[in-house]
Amino acid sequence: MQVERLSTPGARLFRGRTHDGHAVEFLDATRDDEAAQRRVFVVSTLLGCPVQCRVCDAGGGYRGRVTADELLAQVRALAAAAWGDGPPAVPEVRVELTRMGEPAFNPHVLDFLDALPAALSPARATVLFSTVAPAGADDFFEALLAVKARRYPAGALALQVSLFSSDEAERRRVVPVKVWPFSTIAAWGRRAVAPGERVTLNVPRTALAVDAAHLAAVFPPDVFRVKLSELTPTAASRASGLAPAEGDAALEAALVAQGFEVQREVAASPEAGCGAYLSADQVQARPRRTLRR
Predict the structure, then answer these.
(1) What is the Cα–Cα distance from 75 to 279, expressed in whole angstroms?
(2) Which of 22, 128, 228, 270 has the most CB atoms around it within 10 Å of its CB?
(3) How far apart are CA 105 and CA 101, in angstroms?
(4) 3-state DSSP: the chain helix, strand, coil percent, rounded to 5?
(5) Tens digit of pLDDT for each residue in 177-191?
(6) pTM of the model as a whole
(7) Taking Cα atoms as reference points, which of 183, 196, 204 lies closest to residue 251?
(8) Domain spans of the chain, in order of start
């Protein structure tokens, strides 16, 4: 894959070309305070995305799937930029499937996840698999659990569902494809976790409804945790009228009172946040250097 590193305000951003010439975007989202212990690589699984969530700039213009080799090429290019051609210089490399594309729409992701631990050895490979839980992808999700059991020890493959709201009708307005109902997500989550693990419910902080008691009634807190993440200010979120919410201490307290473990997530930079996609009409990204892997 031919790879360009782009000059952007806050992210170590790269753009590669797939076998058929399409551009794919990926980045090193490692925070300075964690760089000695692990690197965080964020990769794209699709070329564009057919989901077109109302908060995400990566939707639209869907052109197909990234192959397993092209997924591995993204990781290798990021690794080469971080520490050269030698073995990983950190104990852990975390790969997040969150840049562009719904991963459950790409069966090549399963082959990629199967191969990733060996490709990153001797570092420990960990993964964040984030999904909107699209309906019709049941076979994929079953195969994902098989790969998780086969290749990833407890805690190494984290599962995350982008929930947005505790109101299912409101959620469907943000995620405009047919998705699993909450009851199906809850049943799958119970089967997905090993002892001590949790499936994460990602709730970007907006004015959308989040009822802690209702979430706890549907999603058992011994199986699910809640992540309160920052809403990335994207062109899509602005067009949809979804603005970041302020002052969510009361919501966090209500979730804790229901028994949930609560995480807060802050993106390393706005360019690294969920839904960001630095297309040419948004950022004047300039090639800095070209690598070939």
Answers:
(1) 21
(2) 228
(3) 8
(4) 30, 25, 40
(5) 999 999 999 999 999
(6) 0.90
(7) 204
(8) 2-292
